[in-house]
Design a protein that fits this description.
The chain has helices at residues 3-24, 30-39, 46-58, 82-107; strands at 28-29, 62-69, 72-80. By secondary structure, it is of the alpha+beta class. The chain has one domain: Arc Repressor Mutant, subunit A, CATH 1.10.10.10. The protein has a three-stranded antiparallel sheet. Helix 1 (3-24) crosses helix 4 (82-107). The longest helix is centred in the last third of the chain and has 26 residues, at 82-107. 9% of the residues are buried. The mean pLDDT is 92.
Length: 117
């Protein structure tokens, strides 16, 4: 088993959360999301991001507006809907619970006599 496969799955599991966190700060263009995710070492390509944005939009969590660009065609800027804000609130609570659970598990002392795996 390769650690890279598990790492990819962990990142995929929190990608939606990260995207919603970025959009929660205000309207944002998809390429700016990609740039921020990449800077945060969340490696994402357009072929992953755009279908996810469409799915979130279809679920009623996102909305978008078209804005003229000085450097090309109009751009689609995403914002959270009120349903998206509530959804993100619930994800934040879950994230806190997961962090607490991992902290508890990692801080537990080794059992005496147990063999290391």
């Amino acid at each position: 088993m390769k650690v890279e496969n598990t790492q990819v799955q962990m990142r995929k599991g929190i990608l939606e959360f990260c995207i919603l966190e970025i959009i929660a700060r205000g309207e944002v263009y998809a390429s700016d999301m990609l740039e921020e995710l990449t800077a945060a070492r969340m490696i994402v390509v357009e072929g992953t991001l755009y279908p996810l944005l469409t799915r979130l939009k279809n679920a009623g969590l996102l909305d978008y507006t078209w804005k003229e660009s000085t450097s090309g065609p109009p751009r689609k800027y995403y914002t959270l809907t009120s349903g998206g804000q509530e959804f993100l609130h619930q994800l934040r609570l879950t994230w806190e619970e997961v962090q607490d659970s991992i902290r508890i598990i990692r801080q537990k002392p080794h059992l005496s006599g147990a063999s290391a795996q």
